[in-house]
Amino acid sequence: MDTKQRLYDNFQKVLHKSQWWKAYSGDSFINRLNRFFHKPARFLLLQISKFRPIPITIETFWGDKMRCYLPDYFYPQFLGFLWSEPEMNLTQFIIDNFEENGIFIDVGASCGFFTLLANAISRGHGEVHAFEPTPHIFRYLETNTKQHTQTTINQLALSNTVGSEMFYTNPVFSTKNSLVHRKSAPKETQVRVITLDKYCQEHSIVPTFIKIDVEGGEYKVIQGAINTLQSFSPIISMEMRRNRNEPHILAANALMNLGYRAYDFDSHGGLKLIPRVDVYTINKIIPADKVYTNLIFKKMNDNE
Predict the structure, then answer these.
(1) Fold category of 85-299 in CATH
(2) Is a pLDDT exceeding 70 seen at residue 103?
(3) Which of 15, 100, 130, 203 is the most exposed place for a label (fewest CB within 10 A)?
């Protein structure tokens, strides 16, 4: 059995199990009770972690051990599920579309779930380059990738300039951390920044897949990657939020001006074309009770 088929089969098993997550997600008393009876000890540990973060180890569906912490967004996996539907769709898309000899760029790698997934696909034939500026999160990423020699990790943020910028963090939830100031990330710290153009030039790499999840810094990432995107046309996945989405919309339209087309996932995990990306379109794509989705951007070719 080849690597992709094994990954696909393992993912389908976990995906089937994760459909039950819909019965456990949400903040109602019944949903919380369901989660408690599903795995009571782990649920109680999760509640304790809301007062003090707790380091944990989870096992990915392809067999890697991953160090991370509660109560950050890893808790569905801690309870035995995958994440929400956008992450499951993106996981399937990466398995299907990232090739083992490709070069994967993980922008906003966090503890390294997608970095490790790309590494599992490449099996030493390709390269993985991950960027995570948050100091304590980077230490988890460093631990999780230390056995993978073809993976390069960078304690850097990708931006539209080279040097340093103010970075804003939340002490518990890494999904709040950003180059863009917001009330939910009150702590300020200086981080080193670089453009993707300069990084690719310095390392002589031609990216084939770029995953971007930087909580409002998307437009800066694209501004610093114009030459790379024009020259090499990598596939791009980018998180799109329902609220506070101006940087996401600017980034999406910048990509479309470079010849990219935007795609959302349909109900079967396939792609459907989005003619334009604006506030109205995003509000249609992302239901009012959801927070975000992942869009895919691919260059047009002569057959489209």
Answers:
(1) Rossmann fold (3.40.50)
(2) yes
(3) 203
